[in-house]
Amino acid sequence: MSDINLFGWKMGGPAGRTGHEVLSAVKDGAQSTLEDPQTQTDALRSADTLLWSYDLSHGHFEFKGDLRNLDLALLSGRVTLEDMTPVFASGEIERLEMALRAQEVHTAADLPGDDQVQCMLRLKDLRLVYFKGRKVARHLLLGTLTELSRDMRRVSRSAAAGSDLGLHDVHSDQLTGLHSRQGFLAAARTFLMREGDYDLVVGDLNRFRRLNEALGHERADLVLGILAQRLRDAFGETSVLARLGEDEFAVLTQRGFPRVSERMRNALERAIVVAGFDIHPTFSMGAVSAEGGEAALASAELLRRAEMAVEAAKSKGIGAVASYKRDLESDGLTRLALEAELRKAFISGEIHAWYQPIVNLETGVIAGFEALARWEHPKRGVIPPDHFLTAARDLGMMTDLGTIILSATVKCLIKWRAAYDLPEGFFISVNLSAPEIERLHLVEDVSRLIRDAGLPAKCLKLEVTESDVMRDPDATARVLDALRDAGAGIALDDFGTGFSSLSYLAKLPFDTLKIDRSFVSTLTSDASSEKIVRAILTLGRDFGLDVVAEGVEDATVAARLHSLGCGLGQGYGFAKALKSNEAEAFLVASLGR
Q: Do 303 and 185 contact (CB within 8 A), yes or no?
């Protein structure tokens, strides 16, 4: 790059000095190395790093540093993303584009959010580079690009030679630098020798497997590294911090206020932008209290109790926290009993479809229903899905569950269409899990059901979540296209909470967006939630999609959604999920308004 004054440092001129020349200049009384522009340039070169700026309003990058040293001469001058395409491996520049576009959307809509850009990208020659930066003005981002391959080769060689750089102690986690499980047990043992009151919290990162599938292992590892650093920032050196397993972190520290679980959640559950994806990490947490001193509980036993509490938290739903209690000791046996009973429930017909109304917010008339699975246990009564869906997933029974709900829903549609004058566009939506999307004969089965029932287009709607779509976007697109051609409507559920990019709204055949209840429930109390809802409604209008707001709990929220232009609402404010005969009664009452 020749004679560009980008960050106050003028580029060009003679090649940079060697480290010996820099040290000699300092000894000779030259200006401080940190203030010397040439020394700064040398430092960038030695770190295999470039500085960059990106103009959001014009879409231009400028890079500063030794481009020739990194073999990136094509990035000289002002360059667009299109200009940069020849430098990167196929598809990689699109990831960077999505990260930048997210900043453009936040700027245009004045949305809150993480102003950082973080992307791990592969060059055409297979080297890895790490983009990192943040917004410093409304239309300006500044950051660094670091080429990582040289350091990775150095670590690899050191590991082979057995040096300390590459060969980590078994007590240290190689990826994050936190304690490993073995290291935690040893450190906790020493930590608990001191008198005092302590809390141990173990947090399990939800849906990490899907994150791995969506981003790849290298980018998922980057997320784990960021989470580990957040733990260090929040708890410092006065606590024992560990990565116990692939997606499990632990904090042992002195009891205080706020509670450790709250501090841990506040530290970890903030958005991360990686390769153009907005990652919103959530954790299921288990907590256990302990007294330090001579009578302190063994660290292994303390950890066992905390991990039992984690399992209890998972049974409550994503993002819950649970404390260890004695009655958890029987939960292992309880889970085995649950799984055995669940297998019998599928055979004996205890799994049923219930239906939650979806209402036109302008007229108040029923627009459709969402079918939801319920287990009607002969002795324990109705068991909600968050108590058995995890077990069904672990047992590989999600496709069986989907078949039951889909068949029941089509029967209801046949019955109600024959008996009542349903409003135009009436539909029932059914959730489609990841195993069902991947099922071999899904499209043929859905096509046959729609054809045999004589259902009009989009009368049967299939809902998919962002996280399930991102497991394999291209394969999912083919399946959803075929389902749409078969006559099914396609809805994107929980919009705004996963790690999809806006580009998939154009590429995938959605006709409906569902705003997640986390935004709707705080609509009237949180200005940020209203901005997000406004933005989603704008996206829906721009893409010609229907928008359903989930979690409508009262008339005030319903009225506010209607004033913002939202057409459909769903939630306890209208009705909970109803048995099929109760749903039919609700339908009749609504049609008779």
A: yes
**What are the residues whose beta carbons fall under 8 Å from the beta carbon of 13, sequence distance 6 or more?**
none
CATH number of 37-105+114-148: 3.30.450.310
Residue carrying structure tokens 């576009």: 101
Mean pLDDT for all residues in the chain: 82
DSSP string for 375-415: EEETTTEEE-GGGTHHHHHHTT-HHHHHHHHHHHHHHHHHH
Domain ranges of the chain: 37-105+114-148, 171-332, 350-591
Q: What is the pLDDT of residues 563-582, one digit of tens each?
A: 999 999 999 889 999 999 99
User: Taking a C-beta distance cutoff of 8 angstroms, is the pair 191, 296 a contact?
Assistant: no
- What are 482's two structure tokens? 């075929």
Provide the CATH topology of domain 171-332. Alpha-Beta Plaits (3.30.70)
Q: Which fold has domain 350-591?
A: TIM Barrel (3.20.20)
Pairing outcome for strands 272-274 and 283-292: unpaired
Nearby residues of 337 by Cβ (< 8 Å), 6 or more positions away: none
Dihedral sign, Cα of residue 146, residue 152, residue 157, residue 159: positive
Report the sign of the C-alpha dihedral through residues 339, 343, 349, 351, in that order.
positive
* Selection from 47, 467, 432 nearest residue 282 by Cα: 467
Alpha carbons 509 and 433: distance in angstroms, whole number:
17
pTM for the whole structure = 0.51
Enter the DSSP assignment of 126. Answer: S
